[in-house]
Design brief:
Radius of gyration: 19 Å
Strand content: 5-15%
Largest sheet: 3 strands, antiparallel
Distance between the termini: 52 Å
Structural class: mainly alpha
Length: 157
């Protein structure tokens, strides 16, 4: 499992990694020092990351195999790499939101589904996504008004 390197402020040591869309930060079990900084924020980052949101919403519909889930997430947003999807699933699994069911068959079959906790989180995330869709024109109007006011203020200076 990848290890998240975090500084004193809890942010990733990589430039802008904590603000990168879809930055899923996994922490190795036993490195509780990282999580003690702000465990709530860490879970919130996992749930609201670019890929976390799309994975949770997709899994609300039904369980998926890895490749199916990758295609579904790609349909809802940008294409996700296998590595990023694997990291996101691993992080969500560790947080107790996703269940990984590996069946001992040939070829191997692994299904991913939501746990009860994951379903609850996914419904909240989906509600926020729907609100964003409904209110996007208001956000765009606010952005335009803000940009126009900034332009006027900068010309006046």
């Amino acid at each position: 499992m990848p290890v998240s390197k975090r500084g004193r402020d809890g942010r990733s040591g990589a430039p802008d990694a904590s603000h990168a869309p879809g930055a899923a930060h996994a922490v190795v079990a036993g490195s509780a020092g990282d999580e003690s900084l702000c465990p709530y924020r860490l879970v919130l980052e996992h749930v609201t990351s670019r890929w976390g949101v799309l994975v949770l919403i997709a899994l609300l519909d039904r369980p998926y195999r890895f490749s199916e889930l990758r295609r579904e997430v790609g349909r809802r947003g940008r294409e996700v790499s296998e590595k990023m999807l694997a990291q996101t699933l691993q992080t969500l699994q560790r947080d107790g939101l996703v269940h990984r069911d590996a069946k001992p068959v040939i070829p191997p079959r692994v299904d991913y589904s939501l746990t009860g906790l994951g379903r609850e989180a996914a419904e909240q995330v989906r509600a926020l996504a729907r609100w964003t869709e409904r209110r996007m024109t208001d956000v765009e109007r606010a952005r335009q008004a803000y940009d126009e006011a900034r332009a006027l203020a900068s010309r006046a200076s």
